Amino acid sequence: MKNSTKNSAILGAAFLMATSAVGPGFLTQTATFTEKLGASFGFVILVSILMDIGVQINVWRVIAVSKMKAQEIANLVMPGMGYVLAGLIIMGGLAFNIGNIGGAGLGVQSIFGIDPIIGALVSGVIAVGIFLSKEAGSLVDKFTQFMGFVLITLIIYVVFNTNPPFGEAVARTVVPEKIDAMAIVTLVGGTVGGYITFSGAHRLLDAGITGKENLSVVSKSSIQGILAASVIRVFLFLACLGVVTSGVAMMKDNPALTPFVHGIGDTGRIIFGMVIWAASITSVIGCAYTSVSFLTNFHAGIAKNSRYFIIGFIAISTLIFATIGRPAQVLVLVGTLNGLVLPIALVVILLAAYRKNIIGDYKHPVWMAGFGWIVAVAMSILSVMTIYKYLAG
User: Fold this and answer.
1) What is the pTM of this model?
2) Which interval of the chain is the signal sequence (predicted)?
3) Cα separations (Å) of 340 from 19, 176, 329?
């Protein structure tokens, strides 16, 4: 593999993971929790970043050194677990992809003022077009990188038009006035939960960047992915904080739009449309790519024709949104399940890290595994607390 191709795949995997995380839900969550917690939300973001790194660095390294996809690893750790994991990932992926397609439709509506259903259909066609190419892998890498840079640039522009209190944000990130367990679970689950946990690692696997000799670049790429998503989260948080501290209430029907309109005026709707479209379309691509990657080992025909299955996945998501709309109840249920999928998936990977029939003579760093177990236990406890709170209230 040429160095330029390899470097593109490494960066592409990082941005596939990052832009998969940054969907319409990501934007809404950030605005909602900023209004609820104010500058203290910075602490939640910091904790979630550390937990995200603990998840991804373990997952990516074990997958790379084993040269197997997550479902194969899971079946070796516990017979049948790979099928359970694949089922959870695909079910969640389909439900969230319907929401991602809806977000893309709303983005087109904000930019051009057309019906969001039409916008969703057009967006679906664009996503399908990428996978019709025989160079789909390379196109995915380049497209997600470009859209990632667009997202960061536009949100930074908005930040400096909302004048957030940077000093207070830094202070409360270190010494928060209030801490919200549900916010931590939501952020970690939304950034590295469900299919996102494996998106970048599976992309590197498909690109052939595996084995102990590539572990340093695999680790680097995993952290780059988290940092890219986190940069977007931090700047969006600052933009929202500028609105909150000025006394302006977030729009109830679309809180993430508020800082764009407040900071830039009517033009802000167009920029918001560009942001949510870029966030949504890249999430559609990442979700479809990763969800189908969980099927490729179950039948040779799926592996051979994976891009057509990806196209079908996108087409089904688009048609469901266009005909039925966003299934809110399903999304809530799957969102809750994602809080549990992450610790289950992480525990499987951590157990695999010390199975010679999976990782051979590779020695997984004890500190890294310890970091992973802390995250797995913490997320399990926080998820149970969140679900109990949700059911009780």
Assistant:
1) 0.90
2) 1-23
3) 22, 27, 18
